[in-house]
Amino acid sequence: xxxxxxxxxxxxxxxxxIGHFIAAPFCTRILGDMGxxxxxxxxxxxxxxxxxxxxxxxxSVWWSLHGRNKRSVTLNLKAKGAAALLLDLxxxxxxxxxxxxxxQLARMGLxxxxxxxxxPDLVISHISGYGQDGPYRDRAAFGVIGEAIGGLxxxxxxxxxxxxxxxxxxxxxxxxxxxxxYAAFGIVSALWQxxxxxxxGAGRTMDVALTEAVLSMMEGVLPEYGAFGKVxxxxxxxxxxxxxxxxxxxxxxxxxxxxxNSAPLFDKLSKLIGRPDLPQDDRFTSNLLRVKNxxxxxxxxxxxxxxxxxxxxxxxxxxxxxxxxxxxxxAEIASDPQFQHRNMVRRVDDPLIGQPVLHQGVVPHVPDxxxxxxxxGPAIGQHTDEVLAEIGRSAEDIAKLRSEGVx
Length: 407
What we know:
elongated, single chain, alpha/beta, three-stranded antiparallel β-sheet, formyl-coa transferase, domain 3, Rossmann fold
């Protein structure tokens, strides 16, 4: 295994993940995709995500992606001797990423001061529901809680009065993933400050909250409320600041997203749908008026789109250079030529699954030193002996740790 062979801009960086579920593992997956050597600490039974989603041969296809580019080391953190072994690993790492409840690592004898006692320049990223301090510090939270308290769950719903169903959630764990992205950005920022020419060589601590990661994405929601007392309301498939920009039905039961919300684009769309008069209609002469009269405007566009199959609608919009796309499912994503050209849909051999698995590609793309998928999610503890040998543990010592239930 060529851990330090060039395979991305973070080659040579060693990261220890003490995480579970989504947020911390998503952060380290990004770092691993960029070339970092990620050592994932798992309990002997494995990360819970190994049991999520559809299975092949008893293995989750989700784990194939979630655990890729990571080396799995099993460690029973409750066992006597586990903290000492973890500190031996930390001594050889640049970064620690964890997403336990605030204070849990410290209660296990692994507070920031203890970890920096063995690695003074260590960068530590704590990811939690509400952050490491404050009145909500100890409350339980998952990504969906962050999405709700951060305002996303409210704005992702249908427009008021259109349904009495519960507020719609985004179809993926976006709150966790956003927190993971912010953690990765914070880690790279801290490493830059530590290691750049003239840097101070000091370790730093990141405190990332799921709730705050979501809130930070809420655009003008708080400024509008502070300035005008306005509480932004959900608008379904529309956006509240520009029109037309929505999903429109087609004859074959599909949906087409059309974003023609500038004056030149609206003019082109109006001509395409056979209504060149619309830009001069008193209801639609400006974006502000189009937003005010968006229901009537969307109905006019839908009257055109629902007469044609989605492929024809897409072809016509493309010919007129109007921003648009049909609403993709996994099937359309997998066959899309742009994603394929950019290597964003990759067929990767997975030894656990026993067959190729489709993976999302690596983001961001760095042309002169691209990240790679070096391997899929490993077996539980697949790299335990290898990693412990790298930090100087003998075969006899490793066998003893295993017999004692530490690893």
